[in-house]
Write a structure and sequence with these properties.
Layout: H1 3-17, H2 21-35, H3 41-53, H4 57-68, H5 70-78, H6 80-86, E1 105-110, E2 115-120, H7 129-132, H8 142-148, H9 152-158, E3 168-173, E4 178-183, H10 195-201, H11 204-208
Parallel strand pairs: 1-4, 2-3
Helix pairs in contact: 4-5, 4-10, 5-6
């Protein structure tokens, strides 16, 4: 065997081995749906590209705008879908009629000095994808899903967030019909900041509720996650 042939074999074989049962199921289901006329290959490509490019930036801008504009803040907490449209998020995209897993009731949860919200899907991984993008891997794990509803303060501390005892922690459970996003408190030391400056420190984790906005901590920083004290296997 030549060196070239040996390298070629090493390159191809692991790619075959890495195909999971879920990937095989997705391919089979996708091909069947196309065969039955539920959608076309072009429609599937459009949706896939849409799903891959969405992220939490519009949600960060929504919160920053709400911090600066009391009227917009009132809109955000009373009609979150309308507020989302004002920052460029249409929950009917990209199909024109939404998707079964995303076109649902959407609510923005406003934190106060005595109340902190955090979101979870205790059953699976329900998440407001049109405005936050795809959920982080840890959001879908049993350790997060099952433990947050039982020991919320402990789980938050594992993300590095320790709240005072006089702050109530309220866990909101996303489900088939409802999606949530957190509007955290504006941090001290941001007086006079522009909307762009504020949006930069409102990270995805702040919008889930496992972190607080902090000057100097931006979307590009991966927070330290501590090991679970009571892990679930």
């Amino acid at each position: 065997m030549t060196t070239h042939e040996h390298q070629h074999e090493r390159t191809v074989k692991p790619m075959v081995d890495e195909i999971t049962d879920f990937e095989v199921l997705e391919i089979a289901l996708r091909e069947l749906c196309i065969e039955k006329g539920l959608f076309t290959p072009q429609e599937h490509r459009v949706f896939t590209e849409y799903a891959e490019q969405i992220g939490p930036t519009p949600a960060s801008r929504l919160v920053a705008k709400a911090w600066l504009d009391p009227a917009f803040k009132d809109l955000a907490v009373t009609d979150a879908v309308a507020a989302a449209k004002e920052v460029g998020v249409d929950w009917l995209d990209p199909t024109g009629f939404g998707t079964p897993s995303d076109f649902v009731a959407f609510k923005i949860l406003e934190d106060t000095p005595t109340l902190h919200h955090v979101i979870v899907c205790a059953l699976c991984s329900c998440y407001p994808r049109p405005i936050l993008g795809n959920s982080p891997e840890w959001y879908r794990t049993p350790n997060y899903r099952r433990r947050l509803v039982r020991w919320p303060r402990q789980v938050l501390s594992e993300f590095g967030l320790t709240l005072p005892d006089d702050v109530e922690v309220r866990v909101e459970d996303s489900n088939q019909k409802h999606r949530f996003m957190v509007m955290p408190l504006r941090p001290e030391g941001t007086d006079g900041w522009t909307e762009d400056q504020l949006a930069e420190i409102i990270t995805r984790d702040c919008l889930i509720g496992v972190a607080l906005p902090q000057p100097g901590v931006t979307n590009n920083v991966t927070p330290l996650v501590r090991r679970a004290v009571r892990p679930i296997g």
